[in-house]
Design brief:
By secondary structure, the chain is an all-alpha fold. The protein folds into three domains: 1-206, MFS general substrate transporter like domains (Growth Hormone, Chain: A), CATH 1.20.1250.20; 209-264; 273-473, Growth Hormone, Chain: A (Up-down Bundle). 81% of the residues lie in helices and 0% in strands. It has 17 helices and no strands. The chain has helices spanning 16-36, 39-51, 55-83, 85-104, 109-137, 141-173, 177-180, 182-196, 210-233, 238-260, 274-304, 309-315, 317-336, 339-357, 366-393, 401-436, 441-469. Helix 2 packs parallel to helix 6, helix 3 (55-83) runs antiparallel to helix 16 and helix 6 (141-173) packs antiparallel against helix 13 (317-336).
Length: 473
């Protein structure tokens, strides 16, 4: 006997082990999306040397992916709701595999940047559809919480493993391998998912909100581009201000369009779910803290402590291990307490770890001064991301599961772009001030990163305060 739910990609058998196998395949695809946002960083010097790209051009290898991914997530989630979560997931995975192959085969900077944009666009289809499939696979709240624990753990591994794998692959097989590694994994996903999930029932045809799709995509691209421009050009350059103005104007136009559209891309009524709204706000803050943290930690270990790429990656494994372990325990904690209680505690633990890390000196020893705070940070991140995702998807209607997945991923991407731009600028200003006052460069850099870690801790505390004060439905 098989089971089926009209609005979801449910598995072909009620056996629990097959549901968890399907979850593992979905998580594997999500791992690729998260991994690809960081694995390329270590390979950039080799890419620049072979393809004759300067520092400004290399920054676009990252930016092209982030712009396409962050800008298209809402559209990707809505397309999944409309045309079927499994179908859009498979389309996104196929595009991601093809784009990875093109990136690895690139013989020019233009070809590589186009491939990276295609990777980001494909990830924008894949990620929200995968999260929607997870919510349908596990309709029971307790089982869904456990599944989200696995999901959060895999995402955490992807973030931390990117630096390690990027160093190993680039050193042993060349920069092309950081893209080619996606292909066999993607093929496994493409073969397994049709065997484990039945096709979705396609919704009744209706006009797609094309005006809303174009407007919100352009607004998100402008917003992410503005923060990327701040990071690359500085706060006094006119381009970020122009992009911010464009993003605000397009965002206002999008809200007007959504109020009038007969079938809006993003029904504003979805924000009546206060848990969903709160979850997305907290994800903005947590995403900002996490992206800034991993960036600063990698640079600090290499530029200040003198670690090579491989050592820097290995040094982040304890953080990743703590994150994964805690992500697996969070479902039990949520059952005993509640989602909000676990989220507040996790954010405060994260803040404590970041404050501790901010005290590390320019000649820090890993075991004595870095291992402890990074373990605490891993515990906080693991709990925060699982609980935040749980909060954002609870009570969402099946027909809007893709939209909810797109929203939470969009919040994380925008938060990351904002956090890296703002906190990176704070760190840069502090570093310049210390250097101008005669501090050695390693001490000046350490001082800048210390301020960045404190800023990330402040964001975590603000998130905990919002969760505590935010009224329930």
């Amino acid at each position: 006997m098989t089971t089926s739910i009209a609005s979801s990609g449910t598995i072909q058998t009620p056996r629990s082990r097959r549901r968890w196998l399907a979850l593992s395949i979905l998580a594997l695809a999500q791992f690729l999306v998260v991994l690809d946002a960081s694995i390329v960083n270590i390979a950039l010097p080799a890419v620049g040397q072979q393809l004759d790209m300067d520092t400004a051009a290399l920054a676009w290898v990252i930016t092209a992916y982030v712009l396409a991914f962050g800008g298209l997530l809402l559209l990707g989630g809505r397309l999944a709701d409309r045309y079927g979560h499994r179908r859009i997931f498979l389309v996104g995975t196929t595009g991601f595999v093809v784009a990875s192959a093109l990136a690895g085969l690139s013989f020019s900077s233009e070809m590589l940047l186009a491939a990276r944009a295609l990777q980001g666009a494909s990830a924008a289809l894949l990620a929200p559809a995968a999260l929607a499939l997870l919510t349908h696979l596990f309709p029971d709240p307790k089982e869904r919480t456990k599944a989200l624990g696995v999901w959060g753990g895999v995402a955490g591994i992807g973030s931390a493993a990117g630096v390690l794998l990027g160093g190993v692959l680039t050193a042993s097989l060349g920069w092309q391998s950081v893209f080619f590694v996606n292909i066999p994994v993607g093929v496994v996903v493409l073969v397994a998912i049709p065997l484990l999930l039945t096709p979705d029932a396609v919704r009744a045809p209706a006009r797609l909100d094309a005006a809303g799709a174009v407007t919100v995509t352009a607004a998100l691209v402008a917003l992410v581009g503005a923060f990327s421009a701040v990071e690359q050009l500085g706060v006094v350059h006119p381009l970020p201000f122009v992009l911010f103005a464009v993003a605000v104007a397009l965002g206002a136009a999008f809200l007007v369009i959504e109020r009038r559209a007969p079938e809006p891309l993003m029904p504003l009524s979805v924000f009546r779910n206060r848990d969903l709204a709160l979850g997305n706000i907290v994800m903005l803050l947590a995403g900002a803290a996490m992206v800034a943290l991993f960036f600063a930690l990698s640079v600090y270990m290499q530029a200040v402590l003198g670690y090579d790429a491989l050592a820097a990656g290995l040094s982040q494994l304890p953080l990743a291990g703590a994150l994964v372990l805690v992500a697996g325990l969070v479902p039990t904690l949520i059952e005993r307490l509640d989602t909000r209680g676990v989220l507040v505690g996790s954010l405060l633990v994260l803040a404590a770890g970041l404050i501790w890390l901010s005290t590390a000196p320019a000649d820090a020893e890993f075991v004595a001064q870095l291992l402890g705070p990074t373990l605490v940070i891993g515990v906080g991140l693991g709990g925060a991301f699982v609980a935040t995702t749980q909060l954002a998807v609870d009570g969402v209607d099946g027909g809007e599961a893709g939209l909810a997945g797109g929203l939470i991923n969009t919040s994380q991407q925008i938060g990351g772009a904002v956090g890296l731009a703002v906190l990176g600028t704070v760190a840069g200003v502090r570093t310049e001030t210390l250097a101008a006052n005669g501090a050695p460069m390693d001490v000046a850099l350490t001082g800048g990163f210390s301020w960045l870690f404190v800023g990330a801790a402040v964001l975590s505390v603000v998130g905990a305060g919002l969760v505590t004060a935010w009224r329930r439905d």
